[in-house]
Amino acid sequence: MNFSGRVALITGAGNGLGRVYALQFAERGAAVVVNDLGGDMKGGGASSRPADQVVNEIRSKGGRAVANYDSVEFGERLVATAIKSFGRIDIVVNNAGILRDKSFARISDEDWDIIHKVHMLGAFKVTRAAWPYMKEQKYGKVIMVSSPSGIYGNFGQANYSAAKLGLVGLSNTLAKEGAKYNIHCNAIAPTAGSRLLATVMPQDMIDALKPEYISPLVLYLTHESCEETGGLFELAAGWISKNRWQNSAGAFVAKKNLETGEVHMTPEDVRDSWDQITDFSNPEYRTSQAEFQPKLMSCIEALQTGKFPTSDSGFTWSYT
Ligand code: NAI
């Protein structure tokens, strides 16, 4: 797969995963904006060194790259660097990240805000700045970097996990809004050895988790041959899997009093239907709210007519 003629902006590309993405995009012909604020992993300080080093590495191998040292919260400056240097922007990988791990009650306002500023606001600002160019050229590939901590929660990462799952929501909506402009957006939830992970894993495991096992998916998802959009992928150590939402078929919990015709629904009704509400033996997988419409309409009809759904329509009735 070749990226000649494409311009890729990788945020936080001075270290870790972002550095490997930048090197590999450049190796395959893309012109790369290597963005990095160059601070510490808690969001303090700044330095031009990490971005410069990666740019030098790319150039020494004959690739095309420029550095940008702005924080992602000034997304328009990053995109301006791409436009000024290379005249377009095709690919955005929202990779920049920091950690402020603390147990929930100890998270300060600042710990909360800075995590959201770098991960959520940063991805929003960078992608929003790139969006008009992508719309205009009817081509764009965006990656949001989420985390297993966001999907499942993780002790000590309430701020980080909230922001990381927020990025999945952002990605899902951008996939929908971008569809008619040929802009694709996907989210990844990697696990890889880097300075961030070094805070939570022993060294021998970190050594076994190479960023080179993450980058191939990022390159594939952002290649012009890939039509995937709105996906979420978990990956680590050579393994890649797609993640999706699953609903139980659910229960129609409202009940009808056959004598009075009154429909009612109480906490006790919820309790009595609990096994069925939480029964995943007949699951549903939705990728849009629209896919819930038929079921919603049949529920509304049931409430209006008193003709409650039968088990054929995926519900179980309850009459009193
Ligand atoms: P890293 O710390 O090696 O690299 C992150 C880079 O982002 C650093 O070079 C840092 O200077 C830069 N950065 C931080 N704040 C910035 C800002 N405001 N503006 C511009 N650049 C900024 O971390 P790593 O592990 O490579 O992480 C990359 C991304 O992957 C992050 O979003 C992280 O949350 C995510 N991730 C990483 C996992 C892992 O296992 N390493 C697990 C799940 C998610």
From TrEMBL:
GO terms for cellular component: peroxisome. GO terms for biological process: fatty acid beta-oxidation. This is Peroxisomal multifunctional enzyme type 2. GO terms for molecular function: 3-hydroxyacyl-CoA dehydratase activity; isomerase activity; oxidoreductase activity. Pathway: Lipid metabolism; fatty acid beta-oxidation. Belongs to the short-chain dehydrogenases/reductases (SDR) family. Keywords: Fatty acid metabolism, Isomerase, Lipid metabolism, Lyase, Oxidoreductase, Peroxisome. It is found in: Peroxisome. Residues 6-209 form the Ketoreductase domain. It comes from Bugula neritina.
